[in-house]
Each structure stands twice: as structure tokens, then as C-alpha cells.
Please model this.
Amino acid sequence: MILLDHVTKQYPGDKRPALDDVSLHISPNEFVFLVGKSGAGKSTLLKMITKEESPDSGKIIIGGIDLDYTKKKDIPNYRRRIGVVFQDYKLLPARTVFENVAFALEIAGMSNYEIEKTVPKVLELVGLADKGSKFPDQLSGGEQQRVSIARAIARQPKVLIADEPTGNLDVLTRQEIIDLLKKINDYGTTVLVTTHDESIVNHLMKRVITLKDGKIISDQKQHGIYRLDSDNDGMSGFHNGRPIRKPGQSLSRPVRPVAARQVAARPATPRQTATRRVVAASKRPATRTNKPLNAPGRRVV
Ligand SMILES: Nc1ncnc2c1ncn2[C@@H]1O[C@H](COP(=O)(O)OP(=O)(O)OP(=O)(O)O)[C@@H](O)[C@H]1O
Ligand SMILES: [Mg+2]
Model:
């Protein structure tokens, strides 16, 4: 599904490569976490897959497509086959939840009839069936991220990649978003997620790939835990909620139970949430168009 073969990428002016001889194979329907310190090369690796950046050397094959041979004019079409979710949601602020999802289908050439049928199903899947007429700033961060996930999966991509999708969320909401990504994976989508969030990685115990200075230093294919070092035999994991360690093997950081951290970081109170919405609403322009998406004169943001 995703194959990187000896991929190296150095940005102009940088002293060292952002990706340094990275080889990686991800099978269909895998769920993979990509971890590493800031600057390790995680986002650059995702940009290789979306073809936002090209490697200096090495080969990349995604879903059987050799990216070396993807012509410039075919890139938008290629990108539509991959769902992408960002930390900051990147929603269209002047469009409703329904329209944000519909827009992704519209630019993919889907008919209005199909769009009207598809969007409610996707919103149902992400738990937003009753929020279709809201605008992004009327939603919580977690709900906005659900919209962004709905938009990413609406065209039923084979691969979903998410760059720190929980980076702006409180701990309980983070877990909900990861559970949603897991559900999408269960439906047959290959999912690749970058994160700094130790608790969600350790909760899911999926494959965990660690990057350091542009190199893969650890690839725990099963029962992976969050680690930033290379001390890994590919077998480490949890048993009965406790990390398994071999004699002499150390974990990069002590792992606390998820529940303890959930208590420590509480979500915003209803009053805080209400205040944020009022402030956000006051920033919104007073008038909005309610014309259908394809109406003449409707401005595409
Ligand atoms: N457009 C760019 N131009 C020059 N250097 C870049 C560019 N983008 C990234 N880099 C460099 O490449 C390296 C890898 O960056 P990248 O954004 O992939 O890291 P990351 O692991 O995603 O970090 P973070 O966890 O902070 O998001 C860093 O040294 C960064 O400074
Ligand atoms: Mg990044």
C-alpha cells in the first residue's frame, strides 16, 4: 500500500537531510503511528506520500502508483485518493459542516444528487449527524476535527494520513478522535498518524515507527509503545496494561496509565466553552450566503 525505498530528502539550506535513507513498507489496512521528536522528519515523510515534496533520491510507491511517474497534471487526481487530516483542521470558515464535506466531493466531480446522499452518511459515521448546518466556529475543537476527518474520508480513500490530528485537543477529546480513526481503519482504510501523544500510542498498541534525525530508528510492528530511542526488538508492548520489558531493557520515558493523565488534564468547563463560542461568533461576518453549493455567483473559498 505504502512503500518508501531508500528515500532521502534535504531541504535547500539545511545542514542535514530531513529524511535520510528511509525505507518503509505499510500493508493495506494497517494502523501506524509515526513518532519522533520535533524536527525528526515526520511531516516530511507524510509530504512525500502526498507528493507535496519530492525526494532527492529513492522510490515511493503508493497504492501501486510509482510517484516518479506521476505527471504534474495528475497530482490533484492522485491526492484525491488519499485522505489528509491536519492538526489545525483547515476547514472553510464561511461554509457549514455539510458544505465543508460536500465541497470535497464537488471538486472530485460527484453529482449533487450523490453529494446529498453521501454527506449525511459520512457525518453520521463521524458522530455529527445533527451538526450539518453549523459553521466551524460554532463547533468545539474535537467536532471541527471530526468534520475534517469526514471531509478526508468522504471519497472513501484507501489511505488516510493525519499529521498530529489531536495536537490541539484536550486529553478526552484526543482519545475520541483516535477511536474514530481506529473505526475508519476497521472499515478497511490504511491509517498513518503522526503524534507526540504518548498516551494514545500506548493505549492503542498498534505499529509504531520512530524517526530520529530523519532516520527510522525503531519499527515496532506489533503492540508498539511510544518511544523515542532505538532500544527495540520489535516485540515490546504491554501485557495486562503494563509495559513488557526484557531484563536490562529500558523505556525512553516512564509510562503512566491513561486514566491518571485523563484526571490531570480536564476539558473546558461548559462556561469556558460558551464564552469561546460567543467570542468566536462575534468575529464572524454578519451576513452569509445560504445559496446551494453550485449556485451561480457563489464564491468558492
Ligand atoms: N520547508 C522547509 N524548508 C527547510 N527545512 C525544512 C522545511 N520543512 C521542514 N524542514 C526541516 O526538516 C526537518 C524535518 O522537519 P519536519 O517538519 O518533517 O519535522 P517533524 O518531525 O514533523 O517535526 P514536528 O514534530 O515539530 O512537527 C527539520 O529540521 C525542519 O527544520
Ligand atoms: Mg510535523
Notes: DSSP finds nine helices and twelve strands in the chain. The CA atoms of residues 118 and 154 lie 8 Å apart.
